[in-house]
Amino acid sequence: VTYAHSLLAASTCSRCGPGYKTPLDAMKGPREEIVYLPCIYRNTDIQKPDYLATVDVNPQSPNFCKVIHRLPMPNLKDELHHSGWNACSSCYDDPSKRRNRLILPSLISSRIYVVDVGTDPRAPRLHKVHLIEPIDLFWKCGLANPHTSHCLGSGQIMISTMGDPSGNGKGGFVLLDGETFEVIGNWEQPGEAAPFGYDFWYQPRHNVMISTEWGAPKALGNGFNPADVRAGHYGQRLHVWDWTTHKRIQILDLGEEGAIPLEIRFLHNPAAAEGFVGCALQSTVFRFYKTPKGNWAAEKVIHIPGKKVKGWALPEMPGLITDILISLDDRFLYFSNWLHGDIRQYDITDRRNPRMVGQVFLAGSILKDGPVKVLEDKELDSQPAPRIIKGKRVQGGPQMLQLSLDGKRLYVTTSLYSAWDKQFYPDLVKEGSVMMQIDVDTDKGGLKLNENFLVDFGAEPDGPALAHELRYPGGDCTSDIWL
C-alpha cells in the first residue's frame, strides 16, 4: 500500500475523518514520503514570488532528496512562513472532512493562500478559492500579519495574527469557513485581543487555549534591534483563553527570562493540562500547567547559557531558541538554538525536570573558522567545526524542525525569517538554506546527522531560496490536535 493510498483510505474510511484517533495511533502511521516547505525570496536579490516546494524524502525513490514540484504564489514579497490544514485529527470523528487543503498565511503581505494538495499530493496547485485578500482581514477583523493556522473540530480554520493593519502589535484570531475559506470574523471577543501575537495551541478537555507573543510587525519587519526590546515592542507573556467563551481569562508574565515566547506546545495527550514554550531571547523553556486551583502557571525548566564573544553584534550571544516540538508519545522535547547552532533532545518524562539526552551541532554563529571568537563558554571546551554535507557548507543555523510520526527522523531547515536571516546570516541569503535529517535514538536518546541526506535550496532554478517550515501530507506533531 503506497503512502498516497493509505492517506486516501484514512480520509475516505466510512467510520473516520482525517488524521488519527489518538497520538499513539499516529505514531504507527505510514512513513513520510514527501514534505511541503514554503520557500521565500523576500529580502533576497531575487525578484520572484515565494513558492511551495514539494520534496521527495522516500529513500527508495529515484528522486530522493530532490525538489519534485514548485508552486509559485501569484504575488511578490509575501513572506510565506507557517502553514496549516483545512482539517486534521481534531475532525477525526467527521467522515465528511478530508485533509486536502493546505492553508498558507503570508506573514508580511497578510495574504492567505489555499493550496489543493488532495488532487495530486506530489504536485500541489492553487485551490480555485486560492486567496484571502489582506483587506478581508483588515476590514472584517481589524487584524494583519497572520501566523499560525490550526483546524478546529467544528470544521472551521483559526489563524493567529501578530498585528493590526498599521503594523502595531495585536494578538487576535481570524476564523475561516472550512469549505468556502471566507473570512467569518474574529474568534476573540471584541476588545479581548492581546497586545502581541504569534503562536497558539488549544486543549478543549480543559476548556483552554494559550497564545504567545513575538513582537510588533513594524519593529521586527526589517530586522532585529535590541533597543526595540527595551522600548517594549517585543512580548514576554502567555495569554490564557476560555475556549468556550473566547475571552482572555489570564496573563502569565514570564519576565525578562521569558522574553519573546515563540512556539507553544501542549502535550499531545488531550487529557494533559501542561506543555512547554520556547523563549527565544534568553534561550529558556518554560513549562506551563494547570494548578490545583484551576488557574494556570508557568515555571522555567531549561536555560541555555549565553556565550561571551568577540566579533559579534553584542558581547554575549544567546542560543536563540526558535522552534520546539514534542514527540507524539510525549516522551521527548526537541528544540533548535539558531545562533549557537545546535539541536537538543530532552527526556521530559519528568515534566518539571527535563534531561538532555541528545545534541548535534549544525553550523551556527560560533564556528571555529568564523569571525566570532568565544571568550567564555559554560558548556563547550572548543568552538564547533563547520558542517559540510555532500560538499555543501551549511550556512545559518538549525531552525524549523519536524519529527517523523514514529519519532525516529528529525528534519531541519536553516531559515528563520528573511529579514533576520539577512541580518545575522548574510551568506545564508546568498547561498540558500538547506534541509537536513537527524537520526533519533528513541530508546535512550541521541541525535546523529544523516550524512547522506541533503536538500540544497541554494541550487533552485530561480536562485537560492530560504526554505522554512516542514509539513507532511498526512499530518504531523506540530499541526494535529486531538480532542
From TrEMBL:
Keyword Transmembrane on entry: no
Catalysed reactions, as listed in the record: methanethiol + O2 + H2O = hydrogen sulfide + formaldehyde + H2O2 + H(+)
GO biological process, any: protein transport
Membrane topology according to the record: Peripheral membrane protein
Top-level lineage group: Eukaryota
EC number from the UniProt entry: 1.8.3.4
Cellular compartments annotated: Nucleus; Cytoplasm, Cytosol; Membrane
Family annotation (Pfam families): SBP56
UniProt-recorded Gene Ontology molecular function terms: methanethiol oxidase activity; selenium binding
Keyword match Oxidoreductase: yes
One cellular-component annotation, GO: cytosol
TM stretches of this protein: none
Protein family per UniProt: Belongs to the selenium-binding protein family.
Functional note: Catalyzes the oxidation of methanethiol, an organosulfur compound known to be produced in substantial amounts by gut bacteria. Selenium-binding protein which may be involved in the sensing of reactive xenobiotics in the cytoplasm. May be involved in intra-Golgi protein transport.
The protein's name: Methanethiol oxidase
